[in-house]
Design goal:
By secondary structure, the chain is of the alpha+beta class. Helix content is 16%, strand content 49%.
Length: 111
């Protein structure tokens, strides 16, 4: 699941994000906000990847247990203004029996 997420991000193929999500999902872009629950909402937050000139995107699974996983990630990209961003964080995913996410959460710090 995490490998597919990384490839979709690198390919900037936002339409494929829906292949990772179950019909009834909760996608936490930010842990302090309400979860996204529609593909339209998820695709909207993913639009920013189109402007990212990605220098590094690493996603390393840390823990897998049946239908749950945790991964660390590191991202370095340059935005259209020429500003370089570094971000590191953690992902959590809970999968349904079909291998698609019922719940996705992320936490990150950027500099």
């Amino acid at each position: 699941w995490f490998r597919a997420l990384r490839q979709i991000w690198l390919d900037k193929d936002i339409a494929k994000v829906k292949t990772l999500l179950s019909n009834n999902f909760r996608y936490y872009e930010n842990p302090f906000e309400k979860p996204l629950t529609s593909l339209v909402e998820v695709e909207a937050v993913w639009q920013e990847v189109h402007t990212q000139d990605i220098a590094k995107l690493e996603i390393h699974p840390l823990v897998y247990h049946e239908n749950e996983g945790v991964a660390s990630y590191a991202l370095t990209y340059t935005d259209p203004r020429g500003i370089t961003h570094d971000s590191q964080g953690t992902y959590y995913v809970k999968l349904g029996s079909n291998g698609k996410a019922l719940e996705f959460r992320q936490w990150w710090v950027s500099k």
